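=== RUN LOG ===
request id: a7f3
mode: sequence -> structure
chains: 1
length: 196
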Amino acid sequence: MLASFILSLALLSLVSAQQYAGRYINNTLPAVGGSEIAFWNMKDANGKNVTFTNYASLNATGGRLLPANIKRVVLLVHGLNRDPYNYMVNLLSAFSQIPNRPDVTLNNVLMIAPYFPNGNDKNVGFPWANSTSTTNALVWQGSGYAGGYNNQYPTAQATVSSFSVLDQLIQYYDNKTLLSVPSFQLKLRMPPPLLT
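=== RESULT ===
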């Protein structure tokens, strides 16, 4: 089972923040100081937009990071509890303990805690009425997101694997047209698989 993993993408400079163009999803997720709940466009298998919810860190003045200033992106994926807010709290706490370094600041490191909701998150992570999700928010069945399964909702667009979502995030930040100097490093740390 996939508990959590860290993807650290070292980037040099972004010139666009179009990824934040997702549709707002009404939710009751807890706020985390120093971050925002962000809604990003993802593409389904037919190239149509669906919305993926994330927690994203804010800069030192409480605003979105200026894309041209971003030097690193850290993705921390939650485990089976689907609690990205706790992961964002831990990311920000760990970040606050980094010794003073001008190349590692809240103004140039973007921290993202993606959210892979399931049916247990009805009316918390996404609205629910008449036995269905009422938005284009990506929602998975059970813990299927941990295995790369396709989303369950929206039912008309149930073609988006959780791995595809992570691929799209990585591709966005690895897009050479968004970088002033093409450079990309991927560091992946995953726990060993659990034997059952």
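=== NOTES ===
The radius of gyration is 16 Å.
The CA atoms of residues 26 and 194 lie 35 Å apart.
=== END ===
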